[in-house]
Every structure is written in structure tokens, then in C-alpha cells.
Design goal:
It is a single chain. This protein is an all-alpha fold and about 300 residues long. The protein folds into two domains: about 170 residues, UbiA prenyltransferase (Tetracycline Repressor, domain 2); about 130 residues.
């Protein structure tokens, strides 16, 4: 193998490692909800500005993910779900992750300011700081309510999308924020139920570890019901039409059914909790997908 081939292979490996450091699956969800906020906003912006702004938001989300992995690298090494991430496997050092995360975060905020507006850049800054400082550093390893409060970080992107188009914040994007905010606890508590050994090993005070499995299942049901109620309200405020209402009721009814099944079925709680985790992703994707479709209809 030649030196050029080795250099090329090393470059590809390093690129893949830094890409993994940015949590691409989380980043894709951030971009998706941000795009929905941008599309349903009542104003249109220049196509180039919109694309570059979305790239900036993606970079900001990736930077937050990188800084999260930097801070939690020791914890990640203890969990089966995260032990193959770039830092625990030695593909990237902690210092490299810190430098990459900080510089990418700064670059993303400046880029969004230049191609959008100050309010959008400010919202992206708040999102990154909330995820890294409030959630990762202060909440995650200190309180079982970590995912409830910290969920706000993942709920900001549709507001950012809205501000990119309008340079304002109104009630409509706030309801998109609330849908993600109330979706987050049941989504992650379901994950913590069927990955409870991981969180025990890492000593992360997730709700089932601190308050018990049954209490967690009850809270999953409560937040599932709250999520469905919040998702229906925008119809009655005139933000969306009948297509959205019917879709949100159908999707929400099955979500509540799964959460209730989890509460009453003790023997299959791991199977059902995994099913809720997977369905919750589909739920969020579909309910946000129907928003721009409803606007068109």
C-alpha cells in the first residue's frame, strides 16, 4: 500500500470519526424540525440564504453533539450503547473533540448571523449552550428530571427555522417547541427502561433507576397524554386544518395506547418500551411532516 493510499484512508477514517462525533442522527432530526419551522413560516426568504442558514444550524447541532461527547466520554465508555463512539475507541482525543466542538459552534453562529439575522443566531447560541451547559454538564448526572428540563434544547430548532424566515417569534412556533418538549420525556424514558443496565453502569440518575420502573411507566403515560393534547391545540387556534387534526389524533391515540400497554403489562415491559421508543421517532417525523402538507392543502 502506498503512502498516498494510507494518507487517503486515514483522512477518510478521521472524517468519519468527526462526522460521528457530531451525532448525525440527532443532527438530522434537528434539521428536519428546523426546516418545518422555516417552511410553515408566513414569509419566504432567498433560497441561498435559506440553505446556508440550515447548514449553519446543522453545524451548530453537530458542535453541541461533539461537546456532549467530549464531556461525557468517560461515561460513554461504560455504556454498551455508546462505548463505540469516537472518543472511547480512541479515534479522536478529548482535546480534539473540544477544539472541534468550540470552533464549529462559533463558526455556525457567525454563519447563521451573516446569512440570516441576529435573532436566529441568538436562538442557535441558546440552543447550544442549553444542551452543553444546562443539560450535559449540570443536569444529566444530577437529577432524574434531566431529560424533562434538558428536552428544551431539542425543542428550539423549529423556532430557529421560523426566525430565519420571519426574524420574529410568535405563538405558532412555540407550539412546535412544546410538541417536541413534551415528546422528549416519554421517548427517552422508554429508552432508559430497556437500556436500564447501561444507565446503572454509568450511574446516570434516570427516572427508572431513581424512582422505579412502575413510576417511570406512569410518567411515560402522563407525558404521552400531555403530548397528544398539546399536539391538537394548534388546530383549535387556527394554525393548522382538519388534515393535521385527524393525523395528530390517529397518531396520538396509538401513542397513548402503547404507553398504557407499557403501564399494565409487566411481563413485556422491555419489548413495549423499545416499541414506544421506535414509534415515538416515527410519531414526531409524521406529525411534523403533516404540518407543511396541511398548510398546502
Amino acid at each position: 500500500m502506498t503512502e498516498n493510499t494510507l494518507a487517503k484512508n486515514n483522512f477518510i477514517i478521521n472524517f468519519q470519526s468527526f462526522y460521528e462525533l457530531m451525532k448525525p442522527r440527532v443532527m438530522s432530526l434537528v434539521i428536519f424540525t428546523c426546516v418545518v419551522g422555516l417552511i410553515i413560516a408566513p414569509k419566504e426568504i432567498n433560497f441561498i440564504n435559506a440553505i446556508v442558514s440550515l447548514v449553519a444550524v446543522a453545524l451548530g447541532a453537530g458542535a453541541a453533539g461533539a461537546l456532549n461527547m467530549w464531556y461525557e466520554s468517560d461515561v460513554d465508555a461504560l455504556m454498551k450503547r455508546t462505548c463505540l463512539r469516537p472518543i472511547p475507541t480512541g479515534k479522536i482525543t478529548k482535546n480534539q473533540a473540544l477544539f472541534f466542538g468550540v470552533t464549529t459552534a462559533i463558526f455556525s453562529i457567525i454563519l447563521l448571523y451573516l446569512f440570516s439575522n441576529f435573532l436566529s443566531a441568538l436562538m442557535l447560541t441558546i440552543t447550544i449552550l442549553f444542551y452543553v451547559v444546562i443539560y450535559t454538564i449540570f443536569l444529566k448526572q444530577r437529577t432524574p428530571q434531566n431529560i424533562v428540563i434538558g428536552g428544551a434544547a431539542g425543542a428550539f430548532p423549529p423556532i430557529i427555522g421560523w426566525t430565519i424566515a420571519t426574524n420574529t417569534i410568535t405563538m405558532e412556533p412555540l407550539f412546535l417547541f412544546l410538541i417536541i418538549f413534551f415528546w422528549t420525556p416519554s421517548h427517552f424514558w422508554a429508552l432508559s427502561l430497556y437500556k436500564i443496565e447501561d444507565y446503572n453502569n454509568a450511574k446516570i440518575p434516570m427516572l427508572p433507576i431513581v424512582s422505579g420502573v412502575q413510576f417511570t411507566k406512569l410518567n411515560i403515560l402522563i407525558y404521552g397524554i400531555l403530548l397528544v393534547i398539546i399536539s391538537i391545540i394548534p388546530y383549535f387556534l387556527g394554525y393548522f386544518g382538519l388534515t393535521y387534526l385527524v393525523t395528530s389524533i390517529l397518531l396520538g391515540s396509538y401513542y397513548i395506547y402503547l404507553c398504557y400497554e407499557l403501564l399494565v403489562n409487566i411481563k413485556k415491559e422491555k419489548v413495549i418500551s423499545k416499541k414506544i421508543f421506535i414509534y415515538s421517532i416515527l410519531y414526531l417525523f409524521l406529525i411534523f411532516s403533516i404540518m407543511p402538507i396541511d398548510k398546502i392543502i
